[in-house]
UniProtKB/TrEMBL annotation:
Keyword Oxidoreductase: no
Organism: Caballeronia mineralivorans PML1(12)
Keywords, alphabetical: Cell cycle, Cell division, Chromosome partition, Cytoplasm, DNA integration, DNA recombination, DNA-binding
Name recorded for this polypeptide: Integrase
GO molecular function: DNA binding
Subcellular localization, as worded in the UniProt entry: Cytoplasm
Stored Pfam families: Phage_integrase (PF00589)
Length: 403
């Protein structure tokens, strides 16, 4: 595929830019494919068979094919850099220098020309001719994340014997000590607005009732369990099970497979199990799940028991936040800060909100870590049932939704 020409003006009319192609459709001419890139580790013994930049990127991405969210994110960042390098700089990715990447960082903050780089309207499939690499300018946090991923790419290509050096290694600095607080969470007034707007949802028709039940259950699940959306859509209700504690009391748990295919065990509080039973009744299911049940944790409206996509769940959550903004405006309580915060919010904010509230509720930091899956359970934890019981009790006492 020939590279697209720059935007030109001919007889006063703009000549449309040829659209960029995603990685799986991209074919580069020899002068841009990296076969003779100036940063190639020629003469060494490479550990991968790649002879050009596209194949080298594919070899790197092959390590993540079993983790869809990671694969999609890593492909997006490597694809953007490859397209920018060959389209804007007119040089192979394997010829990029440290100075080139400083230019690329500025480009991420304002991808121009927008006609070539930025999506217009709704998101489209990668094979669609109107596909673009960007939805808009990247925030400073997203820029940093992009460069963390690209540094991983370059470092791996150096270790694989494909590149002679990592052009980003000069930018690496000692990591700053993390700030002792998370900023992407809902303050108490915003969290209350979210719950109140859900309670105010219309329930006149059967469909409205089903939609209300789904939203209420989803928010309960994201908050009380601290789940990621990927975990909501990929785990069944059969993960719920009962176990008798040291005092002879039955406690409910949820076993899930989460990020990186790691398994973790989450306390299912009495409040959550009540919400689950309430939701299941809307779908004419038994009040409590049974072992091995394949019913998805979240169901589409209409009675079918199929799995929702992550995109569909994201849209549901964003609508919840939009409704909360509308609720604040209708009561005269809205102001610019609250509206801006809710517009920025995502499902992951509920996870951070849960973590913040557990800390406020004096839940042991170790239990918060294990509930959110920030670290894998230690090998001995499977034998320390007393510790699990304490975690369940602490979560029950320190994290309440209070519809």
């Amino acid at each position: 595929m020939p590279l697209p020409e720059p935007l030109r003006v001919s007889d006063g009319a703009l000549v449309p830019l040829e659209s960029l192609k995603p990685l799986e459709q991209l074919h580069l001419p020899p002068e841009f494919d990296g076969g003779s890139g100036t940063n190639r580790a020629l003469g060494n013994r490479p550990q991968i068979a790649a002879q050009n930049d596209i194949d080298a990127i594919r070899a790197w991405l092959a390590r993540f094919v079993d983790t869809k969210a990671t694969f999609d994110t890593y492909r997006k960042e490597s694809e953007r850099l490859l397209l920018w390098s060959t389209t804007e700089l007119r040089k192979p990715l394997s010829s990029l220098t440290h100075e080139d990447l400083l230019l690329y960082r500025r480009f991420l903050a304002n991808p121009q020309p927008a006609l070539r780089w930025v999506m217009t309207g709704r998101k489209v499939a990668r094979a669609d001719p109107s596909w673009r690499p960007f939805a808009g300018p990247l925030s400073p946090a997203s820029e940093r994340q992009a460069f963390v991923i690209l540094n991983t790419l370059f470092a791996w290509l150096v270790n694989a014997g494909y590149l002679a050096g990592n052009p980003l290694s000069l930018s690496r600095q000692r990591a700053r000590k993390a700030k002792p607080r998370v900023t992407r969470f809902l303050e108490d007034d915003l969290w209350q607005a979210v719950k109140t707007s859900i309670d105010a949802m219309p329930r006149d028709t059967a469909r409205e009732q089903e939609h209300y039940a789904r939203v209420r259950w989803l928010i309960s699940l994201l908050y009380l369990m601290g789940l990621r959306i990927s975990e909501v859509v990929s785990n069944p209700m059969g993960g719920f099970f009962r176990r008798r504690d040291r005092d002879g009391q039955d406690r409910w748990w949820l076993a899930i497979t989460g990020k990186g295919d790691k398994e973790r065990l989450l306390p299912a509080t009495t409040e959550l199990m009540a919400e689950l039973s309430r939701y299941r009744r809307h779908h004419d299911l038994a009040t409590l799940p049974y072992g091995g049940e394949t019913t998805p944790l979240l169901l589409p409206i209409g009675g079918t028991h199929r799995t929702l996509t992550r995109g569909a769940v994201h849209l549901i959550v964003k609508q919840v936040f939009d409704n909360a903004i509308g609720h604040l405006q209708s009561t005269g309580e809205a102001h610019e800060r609250a509206s801006d915060r809710l517009r920025q919010a995502s499902a992951h904010w509920l996870r951070h909100t849960a973590g913040s509230h557990m800390m406020d509720g004096q839940v042991d930091l170790r239990y918060v870590r294990d509930n959110l899956g920030h670290a894998s359970l230690s090998t001995t934890s499977q034998y320390l049932h007393a510790d699990d019981d304490d975690r369940h009790s602490a979560t029950e006492a320190g994290l309440r939704l209070n519809w």
